[in-house]
Every structure is written in structure tokens, then in C-alpha cells.
Amino acid sequence: MDTLAEQLLSGGVQLISQPGKLDTPGGGYGFRFFDIDGRTIEVSADVEARKHRRVEEKEAIPVRLSHVVLNSTDINATRAWYEQHLDFRLSDTMSIPHMGELMHFMRISNQHHSMAIARGPHTSLQHLSFEMRGIDEYMRGSGRVMRSGATKIWGPGRHMAGDNTFTYFLDPHGNTVEYTTELEELDEDTWHPHIYDLTKPENADQWGTANPMNEMIAKEMHNDVDRGVFVAPPV
Length: 235
Fold this sequence. Notes:
Blueprint: H1 2-10, E1 20-21, E2 29-34, E3 40-45, E4 64-72, H2 75-86, E5 89-96, E6 100-107, E7 115-119, E8 124-131, H3 135-147, E9 152-158, E10 165-170, E11 176-180, E12 194-197, H4 201-204, H5 215-222
């Protein structure tokens, strides 16, 4: 942790706090800094693991945070920053021939992506994705949210990049959230990034069960402008 802080400082990254003991739930040791777009990033170590019970078959309860997708006005600059400073690696890219690259899928393990960077009109959150126990639990969870009256904007379907299932909803504050499962695990020694053309419907949804991606869905995922860039939130 201390070495990383020194490396970030030497690379011109603005630290919000110095490495030290964390007083947040779970404790640990860590610090905060701004990324290239002004988001507050925290890294930590030795955080106490929360004890939890096993999620059983047919229980539509998320088991973990799968990934986060961030909107950026310059996805290549943001990608390069995370590669340089935090050792993220490119898994795949989504593009449209007449528009160029639209999304980079980034990983820090053999999981296809823990973060993706999407091209947007401003810096903001695109969506958060929650991993379910399996396909049946994913479908049961999607159905429960649909029956609740929440707005479903896309899905259910299965993406090409990452090979994971998807259903996207709007939460009460207008943020996009996703239920997913079966995100691909890669052989990092042999993996080479693909460029998927989104004009081919199967690259957005292999199954063909989801409503087609359109401007309305994209607009919802642009979200509101993040007015907290380069302003550290309270701890």
C-alpha cells in the first residue's frame, strides 16, 4: 500500500489522503486519490471479511458485486491511466464502424472484467452489476424486480463480451443496475482482446431475447453529470 502511494505520487496522481488505518466498517489500511476523470478511488488492504451465510439454490439474492461501468469522455485516456497506475488489463472492446470504440472491458484477474469504461457525454456512473448464484437465481431475481414495477430498460439476454447474462433496471434514483451471472473466466496466458462490432445484434445479445439496444437505453446509461469530480466525499 505504501509503495503504491509512492508510485502514484511519482506519476503525478493527486492523493486525497496518505496511507493509514481506516475507520470505516471492516477497518484495514488504505488511502484515497483521484483518477484521471476526477473520481475518488480508494485502495485498501487487511479489511476484515464480513461473515455471511451461503446463498442456497433458488434464492434470488446477489452474492457479490460483479463489476462497475464508468462513463468517460475519453475512454482511451481513462483506459491508459488505469493500465499505467493500477495494472488493469484490456479484455475486449466494443465498437461501431462509423463511431469508433465505445467501451473497453478491463480486468485485474482472470475474471473477464471487473470494470469497463464506456464513451459518454460526461463523467458519470454508467451501471453497477450484481452477481447472482446461477442462471435460475438470475432469472428469479430479474422476475422479482420486474414484478415490483421497477423500470426494466434492457434484457434478459446474454452478452458476447464476457459471456454473462444481463437484465438492466433503473433504481429509485435513476441509476442503472444490472443482474448478471456466469461472467467468463479467462486463460490469461493465451487470451487476446477482441473488437466486437455492435451493429451485429448477436454481439450485444447472443440469445436474441432482449429488446434491441437503442438510443433510449444508451441515454439512460449516460446518467446525470457527476458533480463530485475532484471533490473528495466525506468518509
